[in-house]
Amino acid sequence: MSIEIANESGVVVDEAALAALARHVLDELRVHPLAELSVLLVDEPAMTELNARWMGEQRPTDVLAFPMDELRPPQPGGTHAEQDAGEDGAMPGLLGDVVICPRVAAAQARRARHSVADEIDLLCTHGILHLLGYDHADPAELAVMFGLQDRLLASWRADRVQGDAGGAPAGADGG
Predict the structure, then answer these.
(1) Which residues pair with 38 in a beta bridge?
(2) pLDDT digits (tens, 9 = 90+) for 104-158
(3) DSSP tag of 77
(4) Which residue from 23, 84, 122, 174 lies 20 to 30 Å from 39 (Cα-Cα)?
């Protein structure tokens, strides 16, 4: 699995931990191991420009997701092998880009009374779920997406605590 993190925000972010989180989320969702993901951290002017261009809103937002390929996680009980090839036999490719604005995340973290790192983890997970086709436009979708998001973040935190007690968690190599 290839996860590229690019920090153009001017804010210090633990990029290795963010890559490990993204890998955890994709592994938990059983996304094909050859899939590629890009996470871009940007400043407020860049996020405002993206939000205006793609969402029609003249303000920075916390996270945007730009899906590339129509990849979906397998159904419960499915396997990676079921995703080895799409209808045309092609291997899974680029999932897409998750764009996060750390300064907006910092403001939200203050309001939510948790760390900026926790907020960025939430936004990254949220963005990945959007790339995989999850949405929250109606109450049923919201319940599914946010329930899954909460479960993924809880398992990530549990793995990190376990890793802190016995060495680095699996996949913490940042790549």
Answers:
(1) 4, 97
(2) 999 999 999 999 999 999 999 999 999 999 999 999 999 999 999 999 999 999 9
(3) T
(4) 84
Please state whether the predicted TM-score (pTM) of the whole model is above 0.90: no
Neighbours of 157 (CB within 10 A): 13
Lookup: tokens for 23: 């890998």
| Nearest CA among 131, 108, 129 for reference residue 61 | 108
Angstrom distance (rounded) from CA 114 to CA 2: 29
One CATH from 3.40.50.1220, 3.40.390.30, 3.40.50.300, 3.90.470.10 for 2-166: 3.40.390.30
Are 15 and 173 in contact by the 8 Å Cβ rule? The answer is no
10 Å Cβ neighbour count for 111?
8
Closest CA to 37 of 16, 22, 27, 18: 22
In total, the chain counts a number of residues equal to 175
Sorted by where each begins, the domain ranges of the chain are 2-166
- Residue 104, both tokens: 């907006």
